[in-house]
Every structure is written in structure tokens, then in C-alpha cells.
Amino acid sequence: MKKILLLSDTHSFVDEQILKFVKQADEVWHAGDIGNIDVIDTLKKLKPVRAVFGNIDDHIIRSEFPLDLQFIIEDVPVWITHIGGYPNKYDVRIREELAKNPPKLFICGHSHILKVIYDKKLNLLHMNPGAAGKHGFHNIRTMLRFEINDGNISNLEIIELEKR
Q1: Alpha helices, DSSP H only, in the chain?
Q2: Helix (H, G, I), strand (E, B) or coil at 140
Q3: Does residue 164 carry a pLDDT above 70?
Q4: Is 10 in contact with 35 (CB distance < 8 Å)?
Q5: What are phi and psi of 21, to 5 degrees?
Q6: Sign, CA torsion 107/111/117/120
Q7: CA distance to 25, 48, 153, per residue, from 3 (Å)
Q8: What is the mean pLDDT of the chain?
Q9: How confident is the model over 52-106, as pLDDT tens digits?
Q10: Is 87 exposed, middle or buried (0-12, 13-18, 19+ CB in 10 A)?
């Protein structure tokens, strides 16, 4: 079993509220717009990190992380990308590949809007953790945490942090 903390759109910001939840996870996944490599360095001091780069990320972050990250963990195929859209409105860049080979869990960021939607057509769970940083139009900073075990995703929790 793996306990996952999922965040996105930190935009160079990490604080003790975020780190409190990082310490409780087995892994941290970041869906892009990291903002500054210092965010990743801070997270990596505590837990393993899987991440993708977002549209605001610089060459340093882009050299360390891919645009798309696909992997299998605990028998769950996962695809993380920053700009992915959502069910019935997936981004044109990934739409065809997603339809041909859908993962069980599809994760993106970018919108700063927390969404968890089951896509019946592609038989996948779509997650967007919203934005954990303070930059953007969102009112409340958010993250998600969940467990992955033996092919199942369970114990999903929405974490609301302070208003930005």
C-alpha cells in the first residue's frame, strides 16, 4: 500500500501546512507549475517525489521532469501531465493517446480547480488537486491524498489549506 499526497500549481510556494501532509505520505506527486526547484528540493528531503513540468516551469525543472509521466504503482496505471483537461474535454495534445490507452488514474493540474471525476467512457478516475500555492485566481489552497493498494484507489481526501 502507498499513501499518496497529490499537489499542483505551487508556483514556488511551499509552507509548513503542506509539509505537515508531506510527512504523512509515502510519496508526493506534483502535477506541474512547480515554480522553483527549491520546492522539489524541500519535498525530496522528506519523501520521494514524482512530478511533471508545467507551463510556467523553467529549464531547470524541465530538465529534471517530463511533460508526461506514466507509470504503474500497486497495479494501478497512472498518467500525470500538467495540461490535460477533464472528461469529455481532454486537451487535444493527449486526447487520442488517452482514448487508445487509458490509465486507471489520470492526473493533471493547471486549472487551479480541484476536480475528481470518474470518466465512464474511458473507465478512468480523473484527478486535479487544484492549487497548493498562493499565485492564481483560486480562493482556497487545495491538495488531495489517497491510498493505492493492489489495484485499488481508496480513502481519497480533499485537503483544504488556508485561503490564499
Answers
A1: 16-22, 37-44, 59-64, 92-100
A2: strand
A3: no
A4: yes
A5: -80, -30
A6: negative
A7: 5, 12, 10
A8: 96
A9: 999 999 999 999 999 999 999 999 999 999 999 999 999 999 999 999 999 999 9
A10: middle
